[in-house]
Structure formats: structure tokens, C-alpha cells
Amino acid sequence: MKISVSGAAGRMGRRIVALSHEHPEIEVVGALEYAGSPSVGKDAGELAGIGTIGVSITDDVAKVVAACDVFVDFSTPEASLAHAKAATSAGKAIVVGTTGFSPEQKDEILDVGRSTRFLMAPNMSIGVNVLFGLADRAARALGEGYDIEIIESHHRMKKDSPSGTAMKLAEVIAQVLDRDLSSVGVYGRKGMVGERTSQEIGVMALRGGDIVGEHTVMFITNGERVELTHRAHSRDALASGAVRAALWLVSRPAGVYDMQDVLGLKAEK
């Protein structure tokens, strides 16, 4: 399978390049960065710390899309949308791990993706996707009698808040409990906010240092608290999931997928 990586000079992109190059079934054929990036023209393997692989980073979207079977995108919401359109026009599969989409942007990119093999997930870690399923089951079992709070922690360089993973957890739980997250979601508290309502789903974001990613879901009631926690020790947890998703997606029919499809977790619900 031939793969091109967008955001190839970033922290996630470098690990995807490295893990893809090491995989016996994958050939890295393209590496993309934004126009004006100081990384343009450099060898993607050298930036990834694996030595020269003969793939120079470019800002030519059409070039890297044309060369690959699957395009893996970890960039920005605006860039991801443009890349999805390019991949769709070329009939290529695309894996999107970008976060920070507005509701309108998310709807637009999903609509574009329906014309090709399209997979998008806020977090491609296998463990996190198991966490989504556990949160679903816990919400079903515990029901309305528990207050729900989600805490996420990330490195100081992360731009979007709350994380896409935290928002996905909140969405999963809100759907189970038949709540409108746009009405009951609470993102940080300050001042005289009054008593907590029983319908609230709290989502709190912490930022600092080099934390790769931590997510905890709390189900809290009088007398007890249930906590579900996932901690990523390195970006390889996410990068390896993206590589696995690309290998899975390349042979699928056109459609919109997520990591629950890759891992076969949807059938277990």
C-alpha cells in the first residue's frame, strides 16, 4: 500500500512516517506540509529520525494525492477539508485524524467523504476507542443517577480545546442518555455558577508541558464514583492506530468509517 502523509513535519506526522516506513506492507510515497513551511524540500525520513527515505516534503497537494493509495491527514480543519476534496476528486482513500472542526466544518467534510473511502476519528488510539465503548456501556448501566464529568490533559502546544477525544466521549454519553450536548455541555466553571444541574455533562481541559494525552470520565453520585481513564504514553499509540486504519480502509468500498469500524467494536454493542 502506498501512503502519503499530511502534516509530515509535525509530531504526529513524523511518527506516522516512521511507523509506515517500518511496516512491510506500506511504502511512503508522499509527504505534505503547508506552503511556506521551513520543512518543504527536506527528506521526510530525516525529519522523522529514521534516515533518508527519498521522499521530500512538498506543499503540492495534487502531487502527493496522485502518488498514493491512502492519504493520511493530521493538519488543520481548513486544510483537511481541502485535502478531502482533493482525495475525493482523485478517487483516493483518506484517513483524517485532525481535530478542532466546528460543527459546520465537520458536516462539510463528512459530506465530502461520502464520495470516497473516508475514515475520520478524533483519536486513533486503540485504547481510546475501547474507552468510547466502555463509556457507552457505563452510561447505559448507571443511567440518570450519576453526574458526569470529563477531564482531559494535553501538552501546552495543543491548539483546540476541549480535545476531540473529550468531545467524542461527551457525545457518546449524551446520546446514550438522550441529552442535547449543545444545551447541557459545560466547558469550565468560574464564579457564582449556581448548583450543578443533574443534566450537565462537564468537560474540563488542562494544558501543560509535554503531556501526550490523558482522558478521564467520571460518573459521580452520593457515596461513590466510577472513573474510566486512558493515558497515552507516547504518540505511537495514535500513530500506530492511524497506520492500522489506513491498511484497513484501502480495501473497503466507498463510505464513511471510524475507528470503531476498524476494530469491529460497533457489532459488540
Tell the overall outline. Answer: elongated
Uncertain runs with pLDDT below 50, 5 residues or more?
none
CATH class of the largest domain: Alpha Beta
Mind telling me the CATH superfamily name of the largest domain?
A: NAD(P)-binding Rossmann-like Domain
What is the beta-strand fraction? 15-25%
Order of helices and strands: EHEHEHEHEHEHEHHEEEEHEH
Query: Helix share of residues?
Result: 25-40%
Number of helices: 10
Largest beta-sheet characterization: 7 strands, parallel
Structure class? alpha/beta
Count of extended strands: 12
Rg, alpha carbons = 19 Å
- Provide the residue-averaged pLDDT: 94
What is this entry, summarized?
With 269 residues, the chain is α/β, with parallel strands linked by helices. The protein contains ten helices and twelve strands. The protein has two domains: 153 residues, NAD(P)-binding Rossmann-like Domain (Rossmann fold, 3-Layer(aba) Sandwich), CATH 3.40.50.720; 107 residues, Dihydrodipicolinate Reductase, domain 2, CATH 3.30.360.
